Amino acid sequence: MGGIDLIVSGNINFGMKTALYLLPDSPYTLTWTDKPSDPTPDPLPYPAHTWWWQQARQ
Question: Comparing C-alpha atoms, which of 10, 31, 28, 11 is closest to residue 19?
Fold first, then answer.
């Protein structure tokens, strides 16, 4: 898990600089917040994600 913060922040920075989000007619907007939109730490209800969380908790 070491360094995952760099991967996530790098992905966010890359996404904010792609044409999809920079086009004037784009329906998407990006905003920075101080907290996540969903504060629950529960895994998503998808089998692949649930499996990952089970591995991460060991």
Answer: 28
Name the residue ranges covered by the structural domains of the chain.
4-56
* pTM summary value: 0.34
Q: Judge contact between 10 and 18, C-beta under 8 A.
A: no
C-alpha distances in Å from residue 53, one per residue of 11, 17, 47? 21, 30, 10
pLDDT digits (tens, 9 = 90+) for 3-53: 888 888 888 888 777 766 667 776 766 677 888 888 888 777 777 766 777
Q: Compute the distance between CA of residue 19 and CA of residue 55 in angstroms, rounded to an integer.
A: 36
The label of the residue with tokens 């966010």 reads 12
Number of residues written out for the chain: 58
